[in-house]
Amino acid sequence: MKPKAIFNWSSGKDSALALYKVLQEEQFEITSLLTSINKEFQRISMHGVPVSLLEKQAESLGLPLIKLELPAEPSMEEYQELMLRTMNQCKSQGITHSVFGDIFLEDLRKYREDQLQSVGIQGVFPLWKINTTDLIHEFLDLGFKTIVTCVNEMYLDKSFAGRIIDQYFITDLPENVDPCGENGEFHTFTFDGPIFKNPISFEMGEIIKKSYPKPKSADNDEDGDYVFWFCDLMAK
After folding, report:
1. For residue 7, what are the β-bridge partners?
2. 9: three-class secondary structure by DSSP
3. 20: Cβ contacts below 8 Å, ≥ 6 apart
């Protein structure tokens, strides 16, 4: 029997490509998708995608969905407590592995692996250390389709929000922006591709500006906000 794994699903392109690779390799039985949700607004954390569209993705993928509901602005302690509780429940159901779409952020991978180790689950990273230019072209060549739902104004202006990722989008990116947005420059919603039974229908709403205070730390005592532009998507 294959080891059972849970897949950490963000709704975006990296998740979609990582899931594609895991399903192709057939090393694990993917039992369900796990997605962090803003409990107050019922949207995917950071991506801003409404739960109704997330549920349509899960239905088209043919996988059960576990929604990890978080407070609007959870502390690290709250997040860890809720995540560990969820992973312990998964462990009790025979889950031995947890799959992520991370590519090259060493600190993030270490954090995930440390947290998983505490409950006896092993992390899996199908895209790890693959060149991000190669990844985005592979993603498009496979027939995936994705739309930019959120951009960080530190890297990209409002005009990039709501764009479909294609070769024109990649060409327009500034040199300091990773083509997969791995540094948090942008986030996406994937609505079609080889792992979906059918495309996800949606409508585009307004482009909305939102600001979040920068967290104070020993290394950063600057005032100011992080500014993001969100493309509001709605299920048809």
Report:
1. 33, 99
2. coil
3. 142, 144, 193, 194, 195
